[in-house]
Structure formats: structure tokens, C-alpha cells
Amino acid sequence: MLKKKKYIVAVVGATGAVGNEMIATLVGRDFPVERLRLFASERSEGKIMEFKDAEIPVEALNEDSFNGIDIAFFSAGAERSKIWAPVAAKSGCVVVDNSSQWRMDPEVPLVVPEVNPHDLKWHKGIIANPNCSTIQMVVVLKPLHDSARIKRVVVTTFQSVSGTGQKAMDELLQQTTALLNFKEIKCNVYPYQIAFNVIPHIDKFLENGYTKEEMKMVNETKKILGDTSIRITATTVRVPVFRSHSESLNIETEKKLTADEVRAILSEAPGVIVYDAPDKNIYPLPIDAAGKDETYVGRIREDESIENGINMWIVADNLRKGAALNAVQIAEKLIEMA
Description:
Shape: globular
Number of domains: 2
CATH class of the largest domain: Alpha Beta
Oligomer: single chain
Distance between the termini: 6 Å
Number of helices: 8
CATH architecture of the largest domain: 2-Layer Sandwich
CATH superfamily of the largest domain: Dihydrodipicolinate Reductase, domain 2
Structural class: alpha/beta
Order of helices and strands: EHEEEEHEEHEHHEEHEHEEH
Radius of gyration: 20 Å
Number of strands: 13
């Protein structure tokens, strides 16, 4: 990508929850935007959205949409990315794609800037943004892996409904309101009631009994860390929280790390805040992380059931670091490396 003072930028899927967050992140980080173009489905065509002091109409995609665009942030689902990301790349545009479409493609780098920015060097026009639950985990795993080499990770996630999108957030609100007013609830987004409930089912079930979300965490983590020897197992759970994903991690390392050593390592890690004082009831909560850029880590303690084990609890805003922020950081790193 050519070094410029300002760039022509596109957001594809601009009207969705992540698309809105991408626009807000571009503003908040003062990204060098010369001109912003917004794309969404045909039904959103003509809708007016705000960017700084400008009102920008939403466009529908066509074969010529990406002519002259430098960077395109995609958050419109795997099917649209499969069709339109190659079109954009062929037009000379660099695509940062938030869907699952390109993540495990060996020709496409899967990047978290704090972890593997070097992989940006070999992109061919498309760069994949990892799964939200993977991103917050690897920013914590990377410095520990560098220090003591991770052998195994057991992760259980507690994922907010915003990970599914705006309709899921609306459904949680509607169900909660209905239940508190003793009215009948309706389930449209999830197979079961999500208000006052947890659902151990995110994405489709696979033949091995895991869900696609769980296997995304397994496979993406190995690709990002560049180490296929790490053993990883995941259970992903949807919880009645609007925003921010929480994760319980159990990590086994080759070299012994004490809880204090882990705190010291993570306190120096980019994008991580150690928020850990149980005696004062200080530990990460979804409401703490909502609207924040960092990944919060707490409940750090040694696993007394194995020789070299650590338990911890991590929380991050899935719409920010888990999606929009990481995508914008990728573009910032590309500009820095140009």
C-alpha cells in the first residue's frame, strides 16, 4: 500500500453493529480519511449516515464500487466477502475482512497487530480479521507463550449477544421487557430464550460435537501464534449481556510461571490491562470493558491441579477490539509499514 497523507476508505456492511463501530473507530482514532464511502445491502441504499461533520449516503455494491478506494473494511458476512473482497482487491484496494471467509485461507494473513504484525508483509490484497473471541485471547496468550511456551489451553467463553448483531441485541431487550411485564416472549434470533438464560451453542454444530465458533478459536489461535503444536479446546456460550465477551482460560506452560510473574508479564503487554485485586473485589466485568479498547485480565492464579498451570479471566469489548478496533489497527499498521 502506498504511503499517503490521507486515504479513500470504504466500509462494507456500514449499517450493521460492527459497521457502525468501524465508523466510530475511524473518527475516534483520527484515521487519515480523505473520503469515506459506505456500502450495505440494497435495502439500505440511500440511507444517510454521519461521519464527522459529513452526511454520507449508503450505496449498494457493484463491480466498479472499489475503483479509487485505498482501504476497505468489510463486515457484511462471509458470503458477501467471498464475492466482493476479490473484486475489491483486484481494483487495487486493500481489504480488511471481518468475516470468517478468509481466516483459514493459507494465502491470507490472519492478524492481530499486537501479536503477529509481521504477517502483514505477505498479504495479497486481503487481510483477515480474526474471530472476536480469538482476538482477546491471543493478545493475552502471546506474551505468555514468548515467556514460557504454552502447551495447552482450555477456554470457556461467555459471549454477549452483540456478537450475533443488532437483531440479537434487540431480541434480548424485547425478551427482558416482556418477562418483567409477564408477557409472552418471542425467539427469532436464537433457538431458545436468551434473557435470564445461557445457551451453550454459538454457530453450527460440527460432526466432532464442537461448534464452528469453538473450532474457529482452536484453528485461528494456532495460525496467529504460528504454532500448531499448542493443544486447544474450547466451549463457547452465549450469555444475556449486550456487549463485551468474557473468557475463562486455563493455560499449561512448559516453564513454570507464578501468578505474580504472569501479572508482571501481562502488565507490560500491549493492549492488555491487568485488573486483578480480588481482596478488593477488583476483577474484569463486561460493563468495565464496554466501549474500551483494551483487553482486561484478572482472577490470575496458579492451577493447583497441575505443575505448570495458570487460570485467568479476560474480558474485552467484542465490537471494538474483537472487531472494529482490530481492523482499524491493521490498517494503521499497514500505513506504518508502507
